[in-house]
Amino acid sequence: MKYKPVGDRCCQNEKCQDHSKFGEGNIIRHSKYKTRQGRRRRYLCKTCKKTFCSTKGTPYYRLYKPRSVFDEVVQMTVEGVGISSISRIKCFSWNTIASWQYLACQAASEFNDHKLKGAELIELQADEIRTFAGTKKKPMWIFMFLRTRVRVEKFTWISAQ
């Protein structure tokens, strides 16, 4: 059976001449494989004859838990929940949570490097406080905005545990 080329995939083999090139017509659907979460698609590069799965190059690659659980752990991290707390809530090892956070950090860093090439980042921090001056009948809001220039060489995940 002949398959049509897939335009939304690129070769994941770093030694291939079509590595990271979309729409070249060299990627075709190859087969499917079974996981606990369902069936996943495999692709074949006609240039280098290597196969790869649909999650290769994403944080979900070789993830043995549902993607939704991974997403929940990352969301908790973004909300400021500590690694120990997440591991107790989700009943996973502390090391599993730390490695998932590292994977998410790498993916975010690669996304920023790819999408923000040549851009100088400007960070805007905002904060507010409600206070009472003299009487509680007239609350006063104080707003502060701080604009800083940020030059990020390489982002690394630092855990304060």
Describe this structure in words.
Helices cover about 25% and strands about 25% of the residues. It has about 160 residues and is an alpha+beta fold. Among the domains are: about 1-55, no CATH class; about 120-150, no CATH class. Strands 1-2-3 form a three-stranded antiparallel beta sheet, with no helix packed on it. A hairpin with a 6-residue loop joins β4 and β5. The protein starts with about 25 loop residues before the first strand and ends in an 11-residue tail after the last strand. Mean pLDDT is about 75; it is low at about 150-160.
Structural category: alpha+beta
Question: Going across the major beta sheet, what is the strand order?
Answer: 1-2-3
pLDDT averaged over residues: 77
Instruction: Specify the overall morphology.
Output: elongated
Secondary structure: elements and pairs:
Elements: E1 27-35, E2 38-45, E3 51-53, H1 67-78, H2 83-90, H3 94-115, E4 121-132, E5 139-150
Antiparallel strand pairs: 1-2, 2-3, 4-5
Short note summarizing the structure:
The protein has 161 residues and is an alpha+beta fold. Among the domains are: 1-57, no CATH class; 121-150, no CATH class. It has three helices and five strands, in the order E-E-E-H-H-H-E-E.
